[in-house]
Amino acid sequence: MSPASAVAPRKQFHWRGLRVPYIAPWSAERTLPSEIVRRVGVGGTGIGYADELSHLDRRRGILWTRQSLARGKGTPDLPGMHPLRQRQAMTHMLCQVCGISTFGADFERWGERHLYVARATGGRPIGEGEHTVMAPVCLPCATESVDACPHLRKGWTAALVSYAQSWGVAGITLHQQTLKPLSLPERGLHKVPRGDPAERWTIAMREVRTLHRVTPVALSDLVTAA
């Protein structure tokens, strides 16, 4: 994808003086009740929806959770992620805050690299090969977010990344006999790599990618060089 393929700016919503990230879900966007059934298909037995529409409910053969679309309606869940918009942002390299393409002038100026900002857990920088469910961010949104986001104000790290490779999904994996959800790990959802048999038993909620050719940076240096 090139800068010429950048999408038009999306409507921006605010809540209590804060910009609401494009990927954030709203209270009107509810998870839709769906009957899970056992199915036999390409690759073997797995799960599906009783009323499944493959072109809407699956991506690369993986079942995705159903959540309604009502962006801007109700109350935003600022730390949360809407599964469809998160996946769109990851796939098309959209800024997770404003929703526009990160293939732009800064991308070219940074040697065809994208900017990522994350919580600095224990002061650790973004590392080579790191798994992430976070989409990239444009520079203006990054500088605003580190001051406005309570999550990032506790400590953040930034990096320029040349390539974000598809790794798998994060979601809820079901027991193969009972179809009941397995216990979740302490730190959230089940992470399932591409090609793993557990894919067939997982309801995906996040796209997961690995980051490559990672260069830690200071946002102040990027702003100064702009």
3D architecture notes:
It is a single chain. By secondary structure, this protein is an alpha+beta fold. It is built from six helices and eleven strands. Strands 7, 8, 9, 10 and 11 form a five-stranded antiparallel beta sheet that branches. Strands 1-2 form a two-stranded antiparallel sheet. A two-stranded antiparallel ribbon has the order 3-4. A hairpin with a 2-residue loop joins strand 1 and strand 2. The protein is globular and about 55 Å long. The two termini are 22 Å apart.
Quickly list its features:
disordered N terminus, 226 residues, two-stranded antiparallel ribbon, 11 strands, five-stranded antiparallel β-sheet, alpha+beta
Radius of gyration: 18 Å
Averaging pLDDT over every residue, what do you get? 92
* SSE ordering: EEEEHEEHHEEHHEEEH
Largest sheet: 5 strands, antiparallel
Per DSSP E runs of 2 or more residues, the count of β-strands stands at 11
Poorly predicted segments: 1-6
